């Protein structure tokens, strides 16, 4: 039997394959490009392309594709075969350096938010050598960035790479000040924990809402939901276990470090966490993971739901973005060190994150904003829409002592002097893990918990990296000019704590009282919905920061704001139309049919036994007829709200959706869900929550 190490990464053109298939000289050049972003000359590119092709063909591949991440949030690929005609009438398999480095997909149908005029439909894809190529479905997939003719980014990878570079630049300045002249670069690492639901494919197919929108738009609460908490970490059912085993194998072949899997809080909900890797690769791998999860599910007669809120009243799915930064020497900069000096450095990086989260609460909120995620944030199951940072009692006490020049208990009643005292090691305390914080320090990393399950992790990391780069830049600017390094450092840390401690919150983030305190007392932002937050992407301070670090150009930001709102609008409008159709074609007819059958039965009974009252039937028929009428009214109201959108621009449409369409959708749903509870099971036109959530054994 083949063991995991035998096949791990077998479909990846990784370092092992590069070493084995490239000449020493070509390998060295390519490594320089990967590690330091050096230009690759064309002879090297040709040699790499040829080796890649030979390797891919030997693995059965016939095609290649530039694999990219347009602003739709999913990946895109256009396949070309390697074949090239030979004079003798046959074909040879060819792949040139040029084809490896650059592609020209017809990009006119990808969102560009006005960046690409229609007459210039061309877009370019450019090879990202820092993420390994891999084979999927007999196709060599080359991770690429995607940009317009004018060089503006049309994807998520480009700004992500730029944000990593920005953070690297600033962190290097700081490390130099601390005397780390041997460090060559600083990289951010991410381990995204991915939540998902599994439902039976046959049941899924019977629900138009799931098929068209990925979430249920109707559905009464089942008698049993998640109240027993018996699913969390529960025994994995055989069908699910088979799925997970198969999924792991597929992911391992692709070099994805799938590590942990368990059942989540809601029935039918599960989680998969990989071992962390460099942000760029973690992002590619997360996209790949989501795709493979869905593909493997189909093989098992299942459907993997990645939507943030597939079921109302049942926990939705998120993605925890575990984030840290480390040097090329493998030193995690968010780990308290062993010497006083290292501790000061640790505190400075910690402060940089605190300041970043506080100063750019809006950008972090924007980074996780989608129509789907709006259903989760603040719904007592996911962190609220208000950003705050959990540090734990110990670390908070340390910061408190520094801010107020007070003795810190942990170090034996003496004043905590930066650069002199050793801090305690902040090990992750499992008993005191705060699961309700949107942004939690967990010993040597931060866990950003607001991301939705379906979203690419790129956006969150772009904003996080950029904001932290900005804090570090401000620090480096001051420290480089400081006459007395230690005292300037101490003052800066003190000032950061004073200015930004309002973002620290160690309590229960789900508590209503916290939202009140956060918004009223602390003045933290609370953007509840996507239309509430998205326009703030273009606030002056945000544009200034993101352009200064060269993460986005101003026009790229404008286009992104437009596209994100457009995506929101489209998602909700598809849901609204699906609701109308389900209500008109399935739900109302079902209620009417059941009511008619009851009426008929009553008439028959009465014909048989004239003195019967048939009170129950009469009552039910009355209730059902009334519900059918209310549902019809609900449909009309929803349609009217949609008509109200005509002629509005993207932003106005988003507001009208928030204020009129979504409320009309909830009202229609409430009536339909009530009708479901009053209608006999055999008359209800599609599987119920109970069927869906408990179907997979
Ligand atoms: P949980 O949060 O469920 O208790 P862990 O803390 O063990 O789980 O890890 C969750 C995720 O965090 C994993 O994907 C893991 O690889 C990742 N992780 C661990 N250390 C780091 C780090 N230094 N930087 C980024 N991610 C990390
Ligand atoms: Mg976690």
Task: Tag the structure with descriptive keywords.
about 700 residues, alpha+beta, six-stranded mixed sheet, 22 helices, about 15% strand, globular, binds adenosine-5'-diphosphate, binds magnesium ion
Count of helical stretches: 22
Low-pLDDT segments: 411-415
Q: How much helical structure, as a percent, in the residues?
A: 40-55%
For the residues shown, what is the average pLDDT? 91
Taking Cα atoms only, what radius of gyration do you get, to the nearest Å?
A: 28 Å
Any chance you could write out the topology, listing elements then pairs?
Layout: H1 4-7, H2 15-21, H3 24-36, H4 42-58, E1 63-67, E2 79-81, E3 83-85, E4 91-93, H5 97-101, E5 102-103, E6 123-127, E7 134-136, E8 139-148, H6 157-177, E9 186-200, H7 201-205, H8 208-213, H9 238-253, E10 258-263, E11 269-274, E12 277-278, H10 279-299, E13 302-305, E14 318-327, H11 340-359, H12 361-367, E15 389-390, H13 393-404, E16 407-408, E17 414-415, E18 439-441, E19 446-452, H14 458-481, H15 485-500, H16 512-521, H17 530-533, H18 540-548, H19 554-608, H20 615-643, H21 650-678, H22 689-693
Parallel strand pairs: 1-8, 15-18
Antiparallel strand pairs: 1-2, 3-4, 5-6, 6-8, 7-8, 9-11, 9-12, 9-13, 9-14, 10-11, 14-19, 16-17, 18-19
Helix pairs in contact: 3-4, 6-14, 9-10, 11-14, 11-15, 12-14, 13-15, 14-15, 19-20, 19-21, 20-21
The protein binds adenosine-5'-diphosphate (ADP) and magnesium ion.
């Amino acid at each position: 039997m083949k063991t995991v190490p035998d096949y791990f990464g077998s479909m990846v053109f990784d370092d092992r394959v590069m070493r084995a298939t490239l000449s020493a000289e070509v390998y060295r050049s390519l490594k320089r490009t990967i590690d330091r972003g050096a230009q690759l000359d064309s002879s090297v590119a040709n040699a790499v392309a040829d080796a890649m092709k030979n390797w891919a063909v030997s693995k059965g591949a016939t095609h290649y594709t530039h694999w990219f991440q347009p602003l739709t949030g999913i990946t895109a690929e256009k396949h070309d075969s390697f074949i090239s005609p030979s004079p003798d009438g046959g074909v040879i398999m060819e792949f040139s350096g040029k084809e490896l480095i650059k592609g020209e997909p017809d990009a006119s149908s990808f969102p560009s938010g006005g960046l690409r005029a229609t007459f210039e439909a061309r877009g370019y894809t450019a090879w990202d050598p820092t993420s390994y190529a891999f084979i999927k479905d007999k196709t060599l997939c080359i991770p690429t960035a995607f940009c317009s003719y004018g060089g503006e980014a049309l994807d998520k990878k480009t700004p992500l790479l730029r944000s990593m570079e920005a953070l690297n630049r600033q962190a290097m300045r700081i490390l130099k000040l601390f005397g780390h002249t041997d460090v060559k670069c600083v990289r951010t690492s991410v381990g995204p924990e991915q939540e998902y639901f599994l439902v039976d494919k046959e049941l899924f197919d019977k629900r138009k809402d799931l098929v068209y929108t990925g979430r249920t738009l109707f559905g009464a609460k089942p008698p049993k939901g998640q109240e027993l908490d018996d699913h969390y970490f529960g025994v994995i059912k055989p069908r699910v276990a088979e799925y997970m085993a198969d999924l792991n194998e597929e992911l391992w072949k692709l070099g994805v470090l799938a590590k942990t899997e368990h059942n989540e809080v809601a029935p039918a909900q599960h989680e998969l966490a990989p071992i962390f890797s460099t942000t760029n690769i973690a992002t590619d791998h997360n996209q790949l993971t989501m795709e493979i999860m869905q593909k493997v599910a189909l093989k098992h007669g299942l459907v993997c739901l990645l939507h943030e809120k597939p079921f109302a009243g049942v926990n939705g799915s998120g993605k925890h973005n575990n984030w840290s930064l480390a040097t090329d020497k493998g030193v995690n900069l968010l780990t308290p060190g062993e010497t006083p000096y290292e501790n000061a450095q640790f505190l400075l990086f910690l402060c940089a994150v605190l300041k970043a989260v506080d100063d750019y609460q809006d950008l972090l909120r924007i980074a996780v904003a989608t129509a789907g995620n709006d259903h989760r944030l603040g719904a007592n199951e996911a962190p609220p829409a208000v950003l705050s940072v959990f540090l734990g009692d110990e670390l908070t006490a340390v910061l408190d002592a520094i801010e107020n020049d007070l003795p810190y208990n942990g170090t034996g009643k003496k004043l905590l002097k930066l650069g002199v005292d050793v801090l305690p090691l902040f090990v992750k305390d499992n008993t005191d893990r705060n699961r309700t914080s949107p942004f939690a320090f967990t010993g040597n990393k931060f866990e950003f918990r607001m991301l939705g399950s379906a979203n690419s992790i790129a956006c969150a990391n772009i904003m996080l990296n950029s904001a932290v780069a900005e804090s570090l830049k401000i620090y480096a600017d001051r420290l480089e000019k400081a006459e007395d390094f230690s005292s300037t450092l101490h003052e800066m840390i003190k000032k950061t704590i004073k200015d930004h401690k309002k973002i620290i919150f160690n309590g229960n983030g789900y508590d209503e009282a916290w939202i009140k305190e956060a918004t009223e007392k602390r003045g933290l932002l609370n953007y509840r919905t996507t239309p509430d937050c998205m326009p703030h992407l273009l606030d002056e301070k945000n544009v200034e920061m993101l352009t200064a670090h060269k993460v986005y150009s101003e026009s790229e930001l404008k286009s992104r704001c437009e596209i994100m709102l457009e995506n929101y609008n489209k998602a909700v409008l598809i849901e609204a139309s699906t609701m109308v159709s389900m209500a008109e074609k399935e739900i109302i007819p079902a209620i009417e049919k059941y009511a008619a059958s009851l009426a008929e039965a009553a008439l028959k009974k009465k014909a048989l036994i004239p003195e019967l009252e048939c009170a129950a039937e009469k009552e039910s028929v009355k209730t059902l007829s009334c519900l059918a009428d209310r549902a019809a009214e609900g449909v009309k109201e929803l349609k009217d709200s949609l008509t109200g959108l005509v002629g509005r621009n993207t932003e106005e449409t988003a507001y009208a959706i928030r204020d009129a369409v979504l409320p009309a959708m909830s009202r229609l749903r409430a009536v339909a869900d009530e009708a479901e509870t009053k209608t006999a099971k055999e008359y209800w036109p599609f599987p119920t929550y109970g069927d869906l959530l408990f179907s997979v054994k």
